[in-house]
Amino acid sequence: MSEKIEVPELGAVGLARYLWRQLTSMRTALILLMMMGIAAIPGSLIPQRITNAIAVRDLYDSNPNLARWYDRFYLFDVYGSPWFSAIYILLFISLIGCVLPRTLEHYKAMKAQPPATPRNLSRLEHHQEFKADEKALENAALWFAKNRFRIKRDGDSISAEKGYLRETGNLLFHLSLILILVGVSFGALFGMRGEAIINVGERFINVATTYDTLSFGKLTSEKSLQPFEVKLDRFNATYNPATNAPIDYKAWVTVTENGISRKQILKVNQPLTFGNTRVYLQANGYSPVVTVRDSRGNVALQGPVPFLPQDANLRSIGAIKVPDADPPVGFVANFVPTNQRTSGQGAISVFPELLDPKLLFSVWQGDLGLNSGVPQSVYRLDTDKLRKIGLGSVKPGETFTYPEGSITLETVVPWVNLQVVRDPGKTYALWGGIVAVLGLLSSLYGRRRRIWIRKVGDSVEVAGLAKNEAPGLQAEIQAFVAAVKGDK
Amino acid sequence: MQTTWAYISNYFIYSAMAVFAISFVAHAFETAFAVRAPEKADVTQGNLLVKTLDYQRTEKAARIATAMMILGFILLLGGVIARGLSNKHVPWGNMYEFSITGALAFTGAYLAALRKYDLRWLGLFISLAVLLTLGTAITLLYRDSAPLVPALKSTWLVIHVVAAIISGGVFLLANVVSGAYLYLDYKESRGGRPAWLTRVPTLEVLDQLSYRLVAFVFPLWTFAVIAGAIWAESAWGRYWGWDPKETWAFITWVAYAAYLHARVTIGWRGRRAAWLCILAGSTFLFNYVYVNVWGTGKHTYSGL
Ligand code: HEM
Q1: Which residues contact B30 (CB under 8 A, 6 or more apart)?
Q2: ipTM over cut 0.85
Q3: Most Cβ neighbours (<10 Å): which of A215, A391, B186, B199?
């Protein structure tokens, strides 16, 4: 390489200043903006852990090599990846570096007077000259005041300007983007999110142990959970008999906060609100209420066992684990709310409501492994070390007896999945959004223009100039001229 | 479960299609017959007759074409409203309903713009595009009218969808204008426009028009995205989750922001700006078609 690359002799400070200027230039911002749009694409084509963890696992099963490569480039976590973060952090530094100085400049410009009237008005657009009497300048000043132009008067001329709102709006818009980012970060750092399955009749208490899953933002912890309770009194799901599609979900709850209880209704688009924390109705299913007796006739388990829905008709799977029975037993079970009366094997549900509920199961005996320390899904039973001792099915009120005991299906209650979310940043993000729209409106529809008038002998000269080709200036000047002439 | 209103809606849609077809024929007629060969034989260029455009001759056909467009709009509006009445909810539960409402917005955007600009040269493409949309909707996407799933029952959904559909209609109109710009630019760079296109405005006017359209609806699109976020917050507990639909709405937003920047602050005009405009519009279309039909996010209510 014979060509010498020109490196300005800058030193550390100079280099920093040079980089800063590059980063906050319009061109860099525009490139970063485009890059952010492009960088968002892979996340919409490749399954993401945050939205579709199951698909990610499937890909790992079907094509582990590809999946490993994807993971290496964070393609399953695009929106939290270092490269995506790098782009938007740079973009926002660039934005701040550009918008803050411009805001100051604009503030000064707003307080300053409009620039003086140019010497030669006839060279400007919309120029006209006409006879007028003494009161011409007074009329002009009155019209400017009425139309809220800011004016500078010197001697025989007036320079007037209007439409600063355009630049104000533009700056507000860009500043609001920063506010939105602040809101998003606040939510990520100080928020929490958890889920809990609650059977009808049960109570949800907002402490960490109630949750099935729970995660906190980086700068917050369990201590921050707000104290409240939600008791699920009743739940009703209605379905379209023709299509089986859900029509409405509705939960009747009793909410207790600061020692005061009130009745409320919880629906899909109608969460409960406790300050920054909201409780959402997220999913529903069924819990068969069972009584399991062991070989000596003792009740070893009694109560509802939540089952996990598998399809739109709420065929559900579950595991009933009875470690306290003598001997310990477990059930691998299917539950169908509306049993299909066919001869075929396996359970099929034909409607999601409890029209003809049935619990089908196999019974297993042996060490259930609950004390082994290996975490187990509550919906599955690891049958590797177990022995099958029975196969049966029951409807509500029925009892199935096997050599080492019996199981009775007492009734079936619905459960709901409550999602609890705390997002202290969303108010900022919302305000950012509102300001963004207002800023855009005044920026895109605002018109900045100047009008000048000068008295020369017994006639006056008028001219106007619009920035960004503001339309309608012609008409405005016509109105102005009429006012100057004193026409009503 | 089809209700009477759903049948009425279908009749409205079929009638609207018939009327749009008449409008299309009228537009085609006036475009074709406005072209005429010169009476004097000496107006030739090389061996070719120089044809001219005289659309005074076809003014009547143009008026009929526009009147049919308005009638089609009214019938389509009736169809959309009847579809809503058939289930007592806003008719945006699946792809079919999105499509007929989108066609309504597109026609509406054209008719609204027609009040300010003489855009009748566009009518041929508009009526064809609407016919294709409605035809696809009723043959491929049709679904019986059905109640909304619970997550869709929200006032914010109504607001969000109205804003998004209007924005979409105007974005697509801007795309058509940009496409016309590119085509004419290509034609002019090799010798001139064909006669039937001589009444299409100058390149500068088209360039400005597509910018005006985008600048006009960009705030509305911004609002649509925000309204969607508010809805998502009340339905799913998060206002933004990088669901494919949300991601593409964001990409569209970024693309149009880049377009506005390129024009306002860097001064892009003409061909480059037109391509950028079309690129941005394509991200919108992509979201509508790909994510609705093949996507896997929470937003896939297409009913297919
Ligand atoms: C460092 C970053 C940025 C800088 C320096 C910047 C600067 C500017 C400037 C100078 C204008 C022109 C205003 C006018 O002449 O009226 C503008 C307009 C605009 N900017 Fe940005 N901007 C930046 C980032 C962004 C971002 C991230 C977005 C959104 C995605 C955005 C969206 C817009 C829009 C939509 C307009 C058009 C509004 C108008 O025409 O007034 N900008 N920006």
Answers
A1: B55, B58, B61, B62, B65
A2: no
A3: B199
